[in-house]
Amino acid sequence: MRIYEKYFARQVYIAFVFILFAFSGLFFFFDLINELNTVGQGNYKFGYAVLRVGLQTPSRFYEIIPVAALISAIYVFAQMAANSEYTIFRVSGLSTGQALRSLLKIGIPLVAVTYFIGEVVGPYTDQLSERVRLEALGSAVSTNFESGVWVKDTLSQREDGEQVTRFVNVGKLMPDSTISNVRIYEFDSKFRLSNVRIAETGRYQSPGHWLLTGVTDTQLTDIAPANGKPADALNPVYRANQIVVPEYSLRSELTPQILSVLLVSPDRMSMFNLFRYIQHLTENHQDTQRYEIALWKKLLYPFAVLVMLVLSLPFAYLHTRAGVVGVKVFGGIMLGMSFQLFNTLFSHIGTLNTWPAPITAATPGLIYLVLGLVGLKWVDRH
């Protein structure tokens, strides 16, 4: 790197680290205040609340990094403009294009850090945070249904060669990925109910099997009409054969990773887990819009750091008479927060209107990138 690029990078990185930890500390305080409502329930003590909020810090870093990059760059350039340092750089031959390229080079390590936190650290610590809370409360994961979690499971090839469709109802999903109060409704290739299994608990056994315990297995078979006579609507058409077994190994396409998406919201899942869950939903002909948007946002969000840095460069061309440093930093905070709000709002609008996921995820960043380039061109002319 050139001497002036090293100078820019050192100033921006120092300010970035300070602002990142300042904002994360602020969010830590608010999250801890919000968590105090649960303290005292079960074994959930204040120490567990602190641990839970602390484990959520990497995800907060992931959310804050673009805004922190914007504010730190604005602060550095505002200071340079106030001290006429940037004017000296321009007189020495630093063009707007060179400054922009240098700033984007400074942002590349921040993009890499954002990807690392969002794909490796954040999803793991978020799941760990939820498990700490659930184990302390002695509760389990469920949905808004009183009956628990409902999942569609299509088995492409059963042992007898027939395709099977199952609707699995999991009453409770424990933090260690074991399940309880399980009901499985199995349909044949003609979508006729062929089997009902009720199990007390279940544990995943790799590869592709669930070991169910305390199983009541009800097999339903057709009853053919006697002597070739047409079936009487008042006569039963199924025969039920019920057996009770202590254990049953069930082959299934469901995995604990698919069920564990209930522990973490889609925006905080890794791209790998999102892609696998989208595949599962697609195979079962279910709606994937929400998760596709989350996947594309995870793919494109780290590049918001570069967009924020482009937005910060016009502040270097505003002299002290155009506003003090504090006002510029405040403007940067408002600009960064508006991007976060617009990004979230646009995702919900895209989900409601079923817009293509890549367009929904990329549009906010492109709009702010255009704003940054237009602002840069305006200040360069004036």
UniProtKB/TrEMBL annotation:
Residue stretches in coiled coil: none
Subcellular location: Cell membrane
GO cellular component: ATP-binding cassette (ABC) transporter complex
Its membrane topology: Multi-pass membrane protein
Record carries keyword Transmembrane: yes
Tree of life domain: Bacteria
Keywords: Cell membrane, Membrane, Transmembrane, Transmembrane helix
Ranges annotated as spanning the membrane: 12-30, 61-82, 103-124, 299-317, 329-349, 355-376
Gene Ontology biological-process entries: lipopolysaccharide transport; transmembrane transport
InterPro entries with a match to the protein in the record: LptG, LptG/LptF_permease
Entries under NCBIfam families matching the protein: LptG_lptG
The protein's name: LPS export ABC transporter permease LptG
Species name: Trinickia violacea
Gene from which this protein is expressed: lptG
